[in-house]
Write a structure and sequence with these properties.
About 25% of the residues lie in helices and about 15% in strands. The protein is an alpha+beta fold.
Length: about 230
């Protein structure tokens, strides 16, 4: 069984005769993030793709392009929401201290991903290239939560899915890259924020849960504001 160590680098050949990427290699880089749990970091990787059909030398890998595996609207930096006993205002102040680099659509880019059940069904043709610390992706966004805000892959379809990510996000072929889609993504997060704010205004001590009207009357609507959605 392979025991992946920090900065271990592997190559996995893309075998898909119907794809123009057939014969190229996905480069797997074992990594971790100090803010995540040990169990999550065990499955954590970033990926690159080769320029041609040759296996790169270890010193050449730094120049290869990272594959963007997940994009989300900048407002997602406020997700997940704080626990009900935490102050929204203090929570927002802390999140706003983190510098993010949204693109012209307001999206943040993440390369950090995980491989589900990392020790099971490891491809036999996985090629070890060595151990080397590489430059990190430029302006990558690391989600505050290790759950649900990044991509997770399985060994059985990993090269196909990574090629798909490369096409959608690196080459920007996804339908998300339009003003309309970006606005929808923005409004979706604003809607979730509004629901959370309404929920926090409920005084549960006065609610009889068999009385829907009393629950409804306990809600206070707060209009959304693009510049500062938590006010």
């Amino acid at each position: 069984m392979i025991r992946f160590k920090e900065n271990d680098i592997y190559a996995l050949k893309i075998e898909d005769e119907l794809s123009k990427y057939n014969g190229k290699y996905i480069i797997l880089i074992k990594c971790s993030y100090k803010g995540y749990s040990k169990s999550s970091n065990k499955e954590m990787f970033r990926f690159k793709i080769t320029k041609d059909k040759s296996i790169p030398k270890l010193e050449e890998i730094n120049d290869l392009e990272y594959i963007v595996t997940y994009i989300q609207h900048e407002l997602n930096k406020y997700m997940p929401f704080p626990s009900p006993d935490e102050s929204f205002e203090e929570f927002k102040k802390e999140r706003d201290k983190v510098i993010t680099y949204p693109d012209k659509y307001g999206y943040l880019y993440t390369c950090l991903s995980s491989i589900f059940l990392i020790s099971k069904n490891i491809p036999e043709d996985l090629i070890y290239l060595g151990n080397k610390q590489l430059d990190l992706p430029f302006h990558e966004y690391i989600p505050f939560s290790e759950y649900g805000y990044k991509m997770t892959f399985n060994w059985d379809n990993i090269t196909k899915e990574l090629v798909k990510c490369y096409e959608m996000y690196n080459l920007k072929k996804s339908s998300m890259f339009s003003k309309e889609a970006a606005e929808m993504a923005k409004q979706e997060v604003l809607g979730l924020i509004e629901l959370e704010k309404k929920f926090r205004k409920i005084d549960f001590s006065k609610i009889k849960f068999d009385d829907e009207e009393e629950i409804e009357n306990s809600l206070t609507y707060v209009g959304g504001e693009d510049e500062d959605p938590f006010k």
